């Protein structure tokens, strides 16, 4: 059975990025619940490493999902790999909802994580391969927005469920995670396959037709379609002559791209913003917010996340990637230093605030207001910079032959450090308390230095042109600028060539007519 295909790229992005929404759902399905009596009573007040294991289980599964994502995506295609991921989500959500204790909760979150690892790596690949170069950043930002909407929706679902007595409280919240997955599975058959993947597996006719439908309303002779297809086939031919296996990730400057794809995701995690998304309830308890006031105040940051990511959606393809990465990391680092500095003067609370062993210090009055304000400010700048741009950059740096597996490598960088964060933050709150924020502040400064020295600008370039930015003898990263794409000049050449052909045809027709009269 063939389903009709919808080629509007924004609609395609809206459906595909529901995969990101699954990630958001799982994040806040824990963050809204870990402070409730129902959760703590049933799971025996998990703290320290035990709570860290629960929080990091999703990331552990995501490492596995990211590792297999490239192979699956290259075999069955970008779109169908997302469908494959949904099966893991259904299984994981079922186990999590029916949990009978610590072990099954972790097992369910690991299964969900396999889905998130695949979708978080392959949805950006899919969007990058169907997007026009001028809109690529915007489309991938939709993935980040979907994550944030998932976080916000699920957070307040969890908040509402906190008023339900007993285990039905968290079981209802976790069971609702079935809904976006089913919606995604219904929508996927209506999406086209990636034209670049079709070219890669030698389905040339379908690739050209899909490219024409996406870029030029089905006109195969459109100069943009002709120029881009020539570029795709030329680069693909060159890549197929490259070294096989793992060596293609390190040869001829490719190691720079592999390193950039992995580390941009690593730095996104080590920037410390996910301390706020996973454990904001704990931080606001340190700022003397408790009960429903804490939960609502924590939810506000998720709303800020969406508002400011929506703002950058309109500018990400104009400002460039480098400035957002560099300045975003520096400002986030400053926020961490302020929060850590204020908390360093807090009072030690033996046994924990409200008997929560993960929260051992507390500040009150103006100090607490400063902690809350800079926590919000950190999330605002994260939403404007590293949150969306790291996913965009990671999706852009790979070649066609390495993109699916390469994005899997990048996602491993994300989830490996996400796993580490989820595991060591609760013990960190117990053992080094406010110094955690100083560590993250230093990480942000190191990230900014790394971005400046090694990341060339990719904004406004075709995916094929980005190869030249990383090739031996390529420009220094700090000399690169947004735009200046060679594809525009190539399109003009095609237009000029077509114009000459049309003029020659007209002249032949005129001459033939004159000969017939003679």
From TrEMBL:
Residues 12-459 form the Major facilitator superfamily (MFS) profile domain. The keyword S-adenosyl-L-methionine does not apply. It holds the Pfam family Sugar_tr. It is a multi-pass membrane protein. The chain crosses the membrane at residues 12-34, 54-72, 149-168, 174-191, 275-293, 299-317, 324-343, 373-394, 406-426, 432-453. Belongs to the major facilitator superfamily. Sugar transporter (TC 2.A.1.1) family. NCBIfam families: SP. Its main location: membrane. This is General substrate transporter. Keywords: Membrane, Transmembrane, Transmembrane helix, Transport. It is found in: Membrane. The keyword Transmembrane helix applies.
